[in-house]
């Protein structure tokens, strides 16, 4: 899944959490959580660890970070009635669902099931992804839906 598709799914999840928590902040926090795995893991995996792991799905695409954040977020919400961390972790969960991370359990549960498995290594990963972003009909559609959603959000808020 590409950037704007992740962002759109994060906004949708954020609106659902808004209906539950009645706190507008969760919308943006969940949306941010839905893109943070790529913002952290892609540079780490393709630049810092390019020779060893060589994948853009490392830490924040893993089950353990997501589950630890969800548990901590649940505890914080139950104790302090603050849904911030839970919303952020929910965004990460939505991101992982969009990437279908469980289809490769060895990487999703890394390091518990053995070494990280890399299928593809890209020499020009970032350039390829920029081309994929601007040439994908789905990405353009998701961007349009995000813009419409933001307009509706601010129109409702201004009333």
Automatic annotation (TrEMBL):
<dbReference type="Pfam" id="PF04307">
    <property type="entry name" value="YdjM"/>
</dbReference>
<keyword id="KW-0472">Membrane</keyword>
<keyword id="KW-1133">Transmembrane helix</keyword>
<dbReference type="InterPro" id="IPR007404">
    <property type="entry name" value="YdjM-like"/>
</dbReference>
<keyword id="KW-0378">Hydrolase</keyword>
<feature type="transmembrane region" description="Helical">
    <location>
        <begin position="58"/>
        <end position="78"/>
    </location>
</feature>
<feature type="transmembrane region" description="Helical">
    <location>
        <begin position="6"/>
        <end position="21"/>
    </location>
</feature>
<keyword id="KW-0812">Transmembrane</keyword>
<protein>
    <submittedName>
        <fullName>Metal-dependent hydrolase</fullName>
    </submittedName>
</protein>
<dbReference type="GO" id="GO:0016787">
    <property type="term" value="F:hydrolase activity"/>
</dbReference>
<feature type="transmembrane region" description="Helical">
    <location>
        <begin position="125"/>
        <end position="156"/>
    </location>
</feature>
